Amino acid sequence: MSSSVPQESDFNPQIYSRKDKSLGLLSSNFLKLYNREGVGTIGLDDAASRLGVQRRRMYDVVNILESVGIVARKGKNIYLWKGFREIPRALNELKEEGMREKVDAAYCRSAEASKNKETGGSETQTDPLVPSLPKADSCRRDKSMALLTENFIKLFLCSDVGILLLEDAAKIMPGDAQNPTALRTKVRRLYDIANVLSSINLIEKTNHPEYRKTAYRWLGGKASRESDGSLDQSASRKRVFGAEITNYSLKRKKTDSSMDSQSHEKIMPVYGKQDELENEYRCKTLEHPLKSSSKAIDFGPFAPVKFRREDQENRHMRQVHDVDTMSSKYRPEYHNRGTQL
DNA sequence: CGATCCCGCCAGTAG
DNA sequence: CTACTGGCGGGATCG
């Protein structure tokens, strides 16, 4: 048989496809690789080489997954695999924290009528919609992708928005909503985040009913503090839009038909059973039930695991069969530069 | 074209 | 200091 591992030929612009390198795909592959028995710790270097990507990319994926509880940082270069079962707990925490912040924010809003709080940065003007949250974000760690991910999720958990345009999310979230450059950067980051959250099926890409623009729909259900650990089942049974606690008040958006319009196919994950849960959260693109020797599944940085059946282009479909060998020679090596340190 | 979002430079942080 | 992290935004691709 021929080699299934991408080689230098990938330098070929005709073969190269940006989609084969997406964060969402990397996330899916990461999950397939570690979601199994006996996985305890994850070495970033090892993961990077096994997945055929630069280590830099692992940070992106891991930081986002950590916000959802799937992995936890254990130490330098080491992460702990927690699994899908941790998602409910993580979401509950995010929701509680989000609700708390929202209250505080509302509190500040009224009290900050003519008061200009510190803000610590250089700009950070008061957000028209959501006054900067109490937690001053000025440290590097605080304006990270992880925080962005958390805030993005809180937006869904603490408001009744079912569908959100990334641009709106960027404006709603704490930070400079007026600075065009900052906003652009934030949106770019949200694209990354949305892609990996999509690979977990926490959200789904659709297009807004009225605006005809790409938007994301929350699929993760509503978290609830009670029954520590599990998500509110009644609410997650079916995608529920009517939340109790409301708005982060999206300026526009008249969610008229609060009920989706042309959405279907993918319905709410049903929580409850550990296996069901894992089955649902499991990265999409996996059609196999639960087991699967993960040895025959498409893998590799260049194995186009089509997210939707819109395989229309059925371009070069490469399949790597042995996870443990799809390392080394993987990237185009445009200009051997960014080699790891 | 505008929407997406990959890539890797290089500043910040941990050890 | 070195190695690890991870903002950040240029610019290639996609649709």
Structure notes:
The protein is mainly alpha-helical and 341 residues long. It folds into 2 domains: 8-82 and 287-325, Orthogonal Bundle (Arc Repressor Mutant, subunit A), CATH 1.10.10; 88-277, no CATH class. Helices cover 32% and strands 7% of the residues. It contains 9 helices and 6 strands; from the N terminus they run H-E-H-H-E-E-H-H-E-H-H-E-E-H-H. Helix 2 crosses helix 3 and helix 3 crosses helix 7. It starts with 22 loop residues before the first helix and ends in a 60-residue tail after the last helix. It binds a DNA duplex (15 and 15 nucleotides) through residues 16-19, 21-23, 44, 54-57, 59-60, 63, 76-77, 140-141, 143-145, 181, 184-185, 187-189, 191-192, 195, 213-214, 334, 337-338, 341.
Defining traits:
single chain, 341 residues, mainly alpha, Arc Repressor Mutant, subunit A, 2 domains, three-stranded antiparallel beta sheet, 9 helices, 6 strands, 32% helix, globular, disordered C terminus, DNA-binding
Helical/strand content category:
mainly alpha
The Rg value, from CA coordinates, equals 21 Å
Distance between the termini: 35 Å
Total E-strand runs: 6
How many structural domains? 2
Uncertain residue ranges: 1-11, 114-137, 225-279, 282-341
What oligomeric assembly is this protein in? single chain
Q: Helix coverage percent of residues?
A: 25-40%
Q: Determine the mean pLDDT.
A: 65
Largest sheet descriptor? 3 strands, antiparallel
What portion of residues belong to β-strands? 5-15%
Q: What's the order of the H and E elements?
A: HEHHEEHHEHHEEHH
Strands of the widest sheet, in order across it, are: 1-3-2
What global shape is seen?
Answer: globular
| Number of contiguous helices | 9
Main location: nucleus
Keywords: Cell cycle, DNA-binding, Nucleus, Repressor, Transcription, Transcription regulation
Region (Disordered): 114-137
Family: Belongs to the E2F/DP family.
